[in-house]
Amino acid sequence: MSLAAFALSLALQQAPTGPAPAGAQDPKELFARSKCVACHGEGGRGDTDKGRKLKAPDFTTAKWFDETTDKEIRDTIRNGVKNKKGKVLMPAYKTKLTPEQMEDLAAYVRTFLKR
């Protein structure tokens, strides 16, 4: 797993307690309801207390944007991340979100960079 994918995983530290409500198809709302904001904040900067503690990536930087592939983003959301000792750093969303919601969430992450 690349460093960028690992960093993304830290940003998505909190898994939702169950599938997002059917009305949560708006990507911004899905980002909030899936608890991504707990680490990454509403602006995607990773500037929350938890995000700073986990060194969550800043989705608004060109460096992160350019070094992270769409596939890495999708895979990280789907499969989560564990550290080398097996501790879950980010739970997998594959049973928490529909495939469409994971795609929408991955696409939304890309919108944080403003060039």
Characterization of this structure:
- The protein has a single domain (3-110), classed as Cytochrome Bc1 Complex, Chain D, domain 2, CATH 1.10.760.
- It has 115 residues and is mainly alpha-helical.
- The protein contains 7 helices and 2 strands, in the order H-H-H-H-H-H-E-E-H.
- Strand 1 and strand 2 form a beta hairpin.
- The protein has a two-stranded antiparallel sheet.
Topology of helices and strands:
Blueprint: H1 3-11, H2 27-33, H3 37-40, H4 49-54, H5 62-67, H6 70-79, E1 81-82, E2 88-90, H7 99-110
Antiparallel strand pairs: 1-2
Assign the structural class, choosing from mainly alpha, mainly beta, alpha/beta, alpha+beta, or little secondary structure. Answer: mainly alpha
Give the SSE string: HHHHHHEEH
State the end-to-end CA separation: 27 Å
Number of domains: 1
Q: What name goes with the CATH superfamily? A: Cytochrome c-like domain
Reported by name, the CATH topology is Cytochrome Bc1 Complex, Chain D, domain 2
Whole-angstrom Rg? 13 Å
